[in-house]
Specification:
Chain lengths: 563, 101
């Protein structure tokens, strides 16, 4: 199959320009409605539950998850499906434990909730640190992914792609605030869901609209193993730890939590999670279908020939079924997706800098409305420029671990303090601050010491060198052993074999090892954050906080006094 | 609102029933979700042959189970919203009226 991926298409340019024109138009419209802090951070609380459901889904459905999961399914089959399930299961947790109390208690950031009855300054500083680290890792992963993807799809130079994405994103957030960011997100979510639906319809039409037929052909091409669980889960503890990070990390992502303040009340907040979960679940089912479709209709050889990770499976399938016009459309949608996600992240980071750090810590909670908006805009500009620079700095680096790291920090630093502050009367300032920093430091340092970073990033060269030595050794010895066996010298052959084995073992022992053995630290870092938070709170009472708990409880459940 | 009224509402039977209902439904549903997902993961870790057995044609048992986990997660959020939109909101309105009056 001939592919035109990597070339610049008239259709993709057309769709992309159309998208940019419409979104800049929206930004212009939103700019006139973005003067107060409530408007800048929370779109004036004017978004409906349904709209927010789409926007939340938009925040969560990144280009990396669309292209990545389709690619994983097309190359690994059922294991890709297992992986996609994990990304959905955090949403019910957000609904049952977090969404309504967060909406009722807070104003703009999740730190508002943690600091509700505790000592403002230390809490806000800690929560801002947790938010910023989460947002920055997520942002770097998205920016590097953006540059690479756009280069793959449009053939645009990496740096140019990064600057285009960064500049547009700054424009949305800086001028249009949350209102523009939300509508960009909604448009992108509709485009992505629509594009994926169309691709699935085209795919299934090739199989008489029968999943049985699709899976039957997949089995024929790649054997029954393709439809069975493979090597994704080897260690149950590792799988449990990853599961914890995905489930509770979603409930600690600042850019997701911030969205609950854009709706008028708790009722709309809960509705928005229901819609978001539905859209995201539907999206993953589509993406998995696309992955299997691409494996059958395009073939693994071609998919992996273009990109080893399989990231181009969905675009290749679109080209095969809908021609270059559809490929161009999908490429433009992927670009739009990246833009929308980085805009949401930047706004969340900016709110942590301005609302929590500047107003809450530096100005001790006293700041004029106008001043805060101005600071928020400066923070947006700084973060936007930082995102561009970081994107360029990390060019060609292995950043796949960074989204995992963002989830680990979110579930360890942000989630425990948030949950305890809502539900536990005796939670104290000391407990909260220690819990946040414990989760943050443990999550980051354990991931640095883990196999994903310590070995695969820091010692990648050594690892590759040892792997090469082992391979060389095998290619040298194997013919020797075979020759000896053919001559009937079984004793010598066995000796040679034993020698090869001991040498391989020695080499494997010299392989760089991770200091911390697990790939995902959530079970330890989140557990420690809860433990420290509880122990320190039990160690010293905070009367003022306990006294305010009744009022907080009333607001949590009934919404009296909610903003 | 003064401290005293907040305290009075807390002692109100309607508020107590509201808080305990909301807590139990949230906790029960969250635990169901945990069981759903970690049950799925446990099946993968400890019973691969079951997931690999054929359901019909090439389709393995694991495929509807994985898709079912996604769909059921959504259904759980639906159950919560349905409960909250009817029972919870009703109690909230009742309590708010008391505060207003």
């Amino acid at each position: 199959m001939q592919t035109t991926i990597g070339q610049v298409h008239a259709t993709s340019i057309l769709f992309f320009i159309l998208f940019v024109a419409v979104t800049l138009g929206i930004t212009y419209w939103a700019a006139k409605r973005t003067r107060t802090t409530k408007e800048f951070y929370a779109a004036g609380r004017s978004i409906t539950g349904f709209q927010n459901g789409l926007a939340l889904a938009g925040d969560y459905m990144s280009a990396a998850s669309f292209l990545g999961i389709a690619g994983l399914v097309s190359t690994k089959g059922y294991d890709g499906l297992i992986y996609s399930v994990g990304w959905l299961v955090g949403w019910p947790i957000v609904m049952f434990l977090i969404a309504e109390p967060l909406r009722n208690l807070g104003k703009y950031t999740f730190a508002d909730v943690v600091a509700y009855r505790l000592n403002q300054r230390p809490i806000r500083a800690a929560a801002a640190a947790g938010s910023l680290v989460t947002v920055l890792f997520y942002l770097i992963a998205q920016m590097v992914g953006a540059g690479t993807l756009i280069k793959l799809m449009f053939g645009l130079p990496y740096e140019v792609a990064i600057v285009v994405v960064g500049t547009l994103m700054i424009a949305y957030v800086l001028f249009g605030g949350m209102l523009a960011t939300t509508w960009v997100q909604i448009i992108k979510a509709v485009l992505l869901l629509g594009g994926a639906t169309l691709l699935v319809i085209l795919t299934l039409s090739q199989f008489g609209f029968s999943y049985g037929e699709l899976f039957g052909q997949a089995e024929k091409l790649y054997t029954a193993k393709f439809l069975e669980p493979g090597g994704l889960i080897t260690s149950p503890l590792e799988a449990f730890s990853l599961g914890l990070a995905l489930m509770f990390g979603t409930a600690g992502l600042p850019h997701i939590l911030m969205r609950f303040y854009t709706v008028p009340d708790a009722k709309e907040a809960r509705k928005s999670v229901f819609y978001a979960t539905g859209f995201i679940g539907y999206f993953y089912i589509l993406t998995v279908t696309i992955g299997f479709g691409a494996a059958v209709l395009v073939g693994q050889k071609i998919i992996m020939g273009i990109d080893k990770g399989g990231n181009m499976a969905a675009p290749l399938l679109a080209e095969a079924l809908g021609g270059t016009a559809f490929l161009g459309f999908l490429a433009a949608v992927a670009f739009a997706t990246i833009l929308a996600v980085v805009a949401g992240l930047t706004l969340a980071g900016a709110s942590a800098l301005s609302h929590d750090l500047y107003v809450g810590v530096i100005r001790r909670g006293v700041s004029a409305e106008k001043e805060e908006v101005k600071v928020a805009k400066i923070a947006t500009l700084c973060l936007g420029v930082a995102a561009i620079l970081l994107g360029i700095l990390f060019k060609g680096q292995n950043v796949a671990f960074m989204v995992g790291l963002a989830f680990a920090v979110a579930c360890s630093a942000n989630f425990p303090a948030l949950l305890l502050s809502i539900t536990w009367k005796k939670f104290t300032t000391k407990g909260a601050v220690a819990s946040i920093y414990t989760g943050l430091v443990l999550a980051v340092s354990l991931i640095i010491l883990s196999p994903t970073v310590w070995v695969d990033v820091f010692h990648a060269k050594e690892k590759a060198a040892v792997e090469k030595q082992i391979k060389d050794l095998e290619t040298q010895s194997k013919p020797k052993i075979e020759a000896l066996e053919e001559e009937g010298k079984t004793v010598e052959a066995a000796q040679e074999k034993a020698q090869l084995e001991t040498k391989t073992k020695e080499l494997k022992a010299s392989m760089p090892k991770a200091i911390f053995p697990m790939k995902n630290p959530a079970v330890i870092s989140m557990g420690a954050a809860f433990l420290i938070g509880i122990l320190l709170s039990l160690a010293g009472r905070e009367k003022e906080a306990e006294d305010k708990f009744e009022e907080e409880k009333l607001r949590t459940y009934v919404g009296i006094g909610a903003e | 609102m003064t401290e005293k009224t907040a305290h009075e509402i807390m002692e109100d039977a309607d508020f107590k029933s509201l808080a305990s209902q909301k807590n139990s439904i949230s906790v029960v549903l969250a635990i169901l979700e945990l069981f759903l997902y970690f049950g799925f993961i446990a099946l993968i870790a400890y019973n691969k042959p079951f997931l690999s057995s054929k359901l019909s044609g090439a389709i393995t048992v694991g495929i509807p189970i994985a898709v079912g986990t996604i769909v059921l997660s959504w259904v759980l959020t639906g159950i919560y919203v349905r409960w909250a939109n009817t029972k919870y909101d009703l109690l909230v309105r009742k309590i708010k009226e008391k505060v207003g009056g």
